[in-house]
Amino acid sequence: MDIRQLKYFVAVAEKLSFTEAAKSLFVAQSAVSQQIAELEKKLGIPLFNRNRRSVKLTPAGNVLYSQATGLLKRLDEVVEITLNAHMGYQGHLRIGYIGYGDRTWLPQILKEFQEKYPNVSLEVNRYPQGELTKALNEDTLDLVITFSFGISRVVEGSQKLSKIETHHVCTETICAVLASDSVLVKEWSGKPIHLTELANEPFIVQNRHESPQGFDKTLQICSEHGFSPRIVNTPNLVQTVLVLVESQMGVALLPSSLKDYAGSKLTFLPLDVKAEHRQNDIVAAWKTSNVNPSLQHLIELITKSNI
After folding, report:
1. Model-level pTM?
2. d(CA 171, CA 255)
3. What does the alpha-carbon distance between residue 102 and residue 18 come to, in Å, rounded to a whole number?
């Protein structure tokens, strides 16, 4: 039996009239009669008792009707799900974010997206900087939130990443992070400090493998101000950087948004340096070759939001 035969059968079963069933299906009555006859022939049993005055379901016809209506309803659901998946209304998105400057806007974006597209599941995880562009390149993430200079540097050096689109979402300010009870903080005048005041301090920098952009940014800023930082520790996690700075084992250059994760025993001092040295743009980035239709809805929401 095929789907058309089942649809014709259900129409006759509900109307108990071949004529009315044909009208509801917008086909000729002869086509309905032919399909029902073929269905009965395939099954080898009568589905209707019919004469010139009436059409009634046989006991077997009643059973088929109860099963066929559920089957056709499920078929309609399958078709709807398939079309929704094609249009991006149903699916799965994998999002990676860096964890800086996102608490003021990312939760709201995700909330709005989930409200608008409840049948798209979101897999959201925080990653080290070094993992984000790698995951984007290897198609294990659909969209990443990361520093723009990290994306740009990798794009220039990799043929595979030549087709990446980005959208600016916020600007992060780099600060000098010191223990609150350190001498420099106690003597701080309240004004932005010049980077050269830290030239003789030991530096704590997140591991280059985990955070190549952050590591290189620290070296770049210090170099622009005439010195090479004396790096004494390179932990894997930025949280460990904060612990070591709090222990007065060194100072660090970190995004100001980490204040949300730091306690009162750490002080974030503004830097008296050029804007291009103390600011980092954070962007949403995705591959133009990504064929996930749900991604386009997320991109549209991000680009149109007043972040």
Report:
1. 0.67
2. 10
3. 64
Q: Answer positive or negative: Cα dihedral of 228, 233, 237, 241.
A: negative
Question: Is 173-278 a CATH 3.50.50.60 domain?
Answer: no
Cβ proximity of 127 and 102 under 8 Å: no
3-class DSSP state for residue 92? strand
pLDDT tens-digit map of 251-292: 999 988 888 778 889 999 999 988 777 788 889 999 988 989
What residue ranges in the chain does DSSP mark as E strands? Answer: 48-50, 55-57, 91-97, 120-126, 143-147, 164-179, 202-204, 230-233, 252-255, 266-269, 279-287
Which CATH number applies to 91-170+281-304: 3.40.640.10, 3.40.710.10, 3.40.440.10, 3.40.190.10?
3.40.190.10
Query: Which CATH number is 3-87 given?
Result: 1.10.10.10
